[in-house]
Design a protein that fits this description.
This protein folds into 2 domains: about 90 residues, Rossmann fold, CATH 3.40.50.10860; about 130 residues, NAD(P)-binding Rossmann-like Domain (Rossmann fold). The strands form 3 sheets. The protein has a 6-stranded parallel sheet. Strands 3-2-4 form a 3-stranded parallel sheet, sandwiched between helices. The protein is α/β, with parallel strands linked by helices and about 300 residues long. About 40% of the residues lie in helices and about 15% in strands. Strand 9 and strand 10 form a beta hairpin. The structure holds nicotinamide-adenine-dinucleotide. The site of nicotinamide-adenine-dinucleotide has 24 residues, from helix 10.
């Protein structure tokens, strides 16, 4: 069996189109133009690329983008003061502080300072708690993208599936597992201390790999016909492409897995593109909820 590809690029484009449509209606009917503030501290090259993409896509969807680039030696107090200012600014609906932050900054304190109603990254403990309670909050973007892609592959309903989430990080594994539970899956969380991870994976109708280990999940770990969501983004040497060249691979050995699975996300082009699209959607959700407006379908 050759698995069908779950096209994250196409699904993300559709979500962005839905966001743009919702924004156009909010502007026309409510005079509301949602605003997303992005804060970048320092000059980490990967973060700069992410922030540039976020700003561009925010504007393409018709929203207002507010960008703050701060020097790498920014003091904690100054960053907190900026967050408080953005919390108070009625034109700002979403606040994203790009991670990782420089060493002198206490990341937890910064996340705690963000108004949970504007926490479009879904990292504030109040939003994490809402997922645990199964209540609506702002859902972290990459985990949300995983669930959307799983639903895309499985006809929209995940009820009753045996789901295995490999990895238990706060950013990905844990929230994915909780979201899948809220979608009525029977969820197993496997992690670096789990026994016989391979056997656990083989039980999965739906396998989400978020370990950050290149091609760790082999084809033989996958139940025939399973849906595989590969969150991993790992850069490995690719001498076959020339000296010093690299390529991106996921946490799943794609070529092997594709022969066994029913559907699988590629890397790149799977979960990756969903993250910013979900951030844009979260900004619209935050803008509507803050004003007690109905949240549009996107
Ligand atoms: P992390 O390092 O914080 O967590 C890794 C998790 O994997 C841990 O919970 C650990 O217990 C588990 N783990 C490690 N080795 C294991 C093993 N041998 N067996 C079983 N479990 C093991 O990583 P993260 O932030 O969750 O990210 C995971 C991957 O997803 C990375 O490749 C990252 O680049 C990628 N990622 C992609 C996106 C995106 O697509 N937009 C976003 C975030 C992370």
């Amino acid at each position: 069996m050759t698995a069908s590809l779950i096209d994250g690029k196409a699904r993300a484009a559709r979500l962005r189109a839905g966001v743009a449509d919702a924004v156009a209606k909010l502007r026309k009917n409510e005079g509301l133009r949602p605003g997303l503030a992005v804060v970048l501290v320092g000059e980490d090259p990967a973060s700069q690329v992410y922030v540039t993409n976020k700003v561009r896509q925010t504007e393409e969807c018709g929203m207002r983008s507010i960008e703050h680039r701060l020097p790498a030696d920014t003091r904690q107090a100054d960053l907190l003061a900026l967050v408080h200012k953005l919390n108070a600014d009625q034109g700002v609906d979403g606040i994203l502080v790009q991670m990782p932050l420089p060493a002198q900054i206490d990341t937890d304190e910064v996340v705690l300072a963000i108004d949970p109603a504007k926490d479009v990254d879904g990292l504030h403990p109040q939003n994490a708690g809402r997922i645990v309670l199964g209540r609506s909050g702002l859902v972290p973007c990459t985990p949300q993208g995983c669930v959307i892609l799983a639903k895309e592959a499985l006809g929209g309903d995940l009820t009753g599936l045996d789901a295995v989430v490999l990895g238990r990080s706060i950013l990905v594994g844990k929230p994915v597992a909780l979201l899948l539970q809220n979608e009525n899956c029977t969820v197993t969380m496997a992690h670096s201390r789990s026994r016989d991870v391979e056997a656990l994976c083989r039980r999965a109708d739906l396998l989400v790999a978020a370990v950050g280990r290149p091609e760790m999940v082999r084809g033989s770990w996958i139940k025939p016909g399973a849906t595989v969501i590969d969150v991993g983004i790992n850069r490995i040497p690719a001498p076959e492409r020339g000296e010093g060249k690299t390529r991106l691979v996921g946490d799943v050995a794609f070529a092997e897995a594709r022969e066994i699975a029913g559907a699988i996300t590629p890397v790149p082009g799977g979960v990756g593109p969903m993250t910013i699209a979900c951030l844009l959607a979260n900004t619209v959700v935050a803008a509507c909820r803050r004003r007690k407006l109905p949240v549009p379908q996107m």
